[in-house]
Amino acid sequence: MLLGLLFFGFFLQGYLLNLKIAQSQCFGLDFRAVFLQFLFSDLFFFLVIVLCFLVLHNTIVRPIKKLTKLCQKINKGELTTEVIETDIQEIHDLIITFTKMIEDLKRHRSILEETNKILEIKVKARTQELENLTAHLEDTVKERTKELEKKLQELETFHRVAVGRELKMIQLKKEIERLKAELKKYKDKTP
Predict the structure, then answer these.
(1) How far apart are CA 118 and CA 43, in angstroms?
(2) E strand or H helix that includes residue 189
(3) Could you tell me the residue ranges of all domains in the chain?
């Protein structure tokens, strides 16, 4: 837009110069005086445009470039704030809001780090609890295994005794049957 105004200004100056030259020829004015007058006015106009560009650059472009560099630093993980001065209220408000956002990010990062430390401590404590519980359970399993092995041995002993008793009972029943048969034979033989 400013470039368009600059071209329009130069076009208007050129048009007015041609008009002035035409008038000077009609009225007999000195061509050089008119040309120098327009040359100085063009230089003045150019200086005003350059001054406007410098003012715009210092008040708008430079703070925005600094803000952009600050955004790039934040993107890399550096949460730093810088003082960026400007006379334009909107840019000043943007910088204040941006600075507040950075401070909030710093605060949230520190809260997150504290929470992470607390969580690490809790995880270590819980891991220690689980290791202790595992060791206790292993000891309990070993004790129970020994108890079960002892009971198994007792059951095997009882089984051997019970089987031996049963065999003895069967043997005794056979003996009783044999003795009964012998007794019957003896009773049958005796009159």
Answers:
(1) 70
(2) helix 89-189
(3) 2-80, 88-191
Dist CA 12 CA 104 (whole Å): 53
Q: Residue 83: helix, strand or coil by DSSP?
A: coil
Within 10 Å of residue 62's Cβ, how many Cβ atoms? 15
- Across all residues in the chain, what is the average pLDDT? 80
Is the alpha carbon torsion for 114, 120, 123, 128 positive or negative?
A: negative
Q: What is the 3-state secondary structure (H, E, C) of 91-123?
A: HHHHHHHHHHHHHHHHHHHHHHHHHHHHHHHHH
Tokens 């059951």 found at: 155
Looking at mean pLDDT, say which of 47-51, 113-117, 157-161, 170-174 comes out highest: 113-117
pTM: 0.44
Burial of 84-96, coded b for 16+ CB within 10 Å and e otherwise, reads bebeeeebeebbe
Distance CA 181, CA 165 (A): 24
pLDDT for position 23: 59
What secondary structure letter does DSSP report for 87? Answer: S
Spatial distance between the Cα atoms of 42 and 34, rounded to a whole number of angstroms: 12
Is 1 a residue whose pLDDT tops 60? no
Q: How many CB atoms within 10 Å of residue 167?
A: 10
Q: Which residues contact 81 (CB under 8 A, 6 or more apart)?
A: 70, 99, 102, 103
